[in-house]
Write a structure and sequence with these properties.
TIM Barrel; binds iron/sulfur cluster; 299 residues; Alpha-Beta Plaits; alpha/beta; 13 strands; 11 helices; two-stranded antiparallel sheet; 23% strand
Length: 299
Amino acid sequence: MTGSVFDVQRFSIHDGPGIRTTVFMKGCSLRCQWCHNPESFNGKAELEYFTGKCTSCGRCAAVCPEKAMVAGPEGVRWTRELCALCFSCVDACLNEARVRVGEEKDSADIMKTVLRDMPFYKNSGGGVTFSGGEPLLQIDFLLEMLKIAKDNGMHTVVETAGNVSEKSFERVIGLVDLFLFDLKLMDRERHRTVTSVSNERILDNLQRLDKAGAEILVRIPVIPGMNDDDENMEATAAFLTGTTSIRRVELLPYHNMAGHKYAGLGLENPTKDFSMLPTGKLDALYEILRRSGMNGSPG
Ligand code: SF4
Ligand code: SF4
């Protein structure tokens, strides 16, 4: 079976324990304003155009069957609406100014790549991580890869934003050693404003996973002015201490590094005016978690 994937990253050390291979799957049902992977929003393949790398040579315009690009004295003008995503221009461009994001890949082929690093996983306690986007949106494809991983004795991690059907979690739970579960905001309306969806289903799914005995590490991206207030962290701690066994929380400090990706995809960059977290802020938020009995520390 095939699915839509935008990257397979070997030797990853931030997506679960040990050395891992992370499979980034395309498609997400949230639109978090701070997202650093906007190429994951759309479930289908896309074309990025990086104007800073373009030398206006016109090679792309020459091969475009849709006349979506026109070469002129001021460079190449691209009309995205005319683009049929044939990706001929990607091969034609010698400067990597045109980049394809996302491909339909076979689950067995991906897992062949993942299996190559088995000795590293064994020595480091690592394995495979499925991330995105939202990997659970491609549930059948994900299931196939998880089964292959488990047949080969591999440690498995699924990173999720939780906004999928309860059934999807039920189908994978027996094959997942650790869920990296992203939480953003506890207030329902604030959550809707900055992610485009309510957090009801997300919190329900987290509680259900907990009750079902899943191993869960909650991860919270901390975004200045969006969710870095004490009130939100206190509400998060109160919610988590009410669960049976979720006690591990990792705070992920915001880094503004995705501007070029938004530009490449022709999207407005919602992060352009975001500031960095003030010094000491993360420690103060960890302290709130610790006071509530959470194991609030990196990793
Ligand atoms: S992907 Fe194909 S249709 Fe789109 S701009 Fe490139 S060559 Fe033209
Ligand atoms: S082929 Fe590449 S460098 Fe040349 S005009 Fe097209 S995008 Fe620019």
